[in-house]
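User: I'll paste a sequence; please echo it back and then give the predicted structure.

Assistant: Echoing your sequence first, then the prediction.
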Amino acid sequence: MRLHPLLETVFNEGGYRAVAAYYTEDTRLIATQTETVEGRPAIERFWQAASEGTNAAGVRRTVQVEDAGSDGELGYLRGTVVLATGERATGW
């Protein structure tokens, strides 16, 4: 199984700690419309807020990967997150 479908499932089940565990201690999470988040503890708080907010609203999250790879010690994933409830979906 590719990593992002596993993370989608864990996120949608409220497992923000498990999602954050995939990041290194010195990771920087860069997302649209939010400040850069640095370090695993801050990333865990980021995913906790995202998970609790979307789950409380009955929203499900999927990831559409556009590019992923690595260069030396840098790993990256660029994609679109789709939030959906019922028939409606929002990409960001």
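Residues 40-56 form the longest helix (17 residues). The chain has three helices and five strands.
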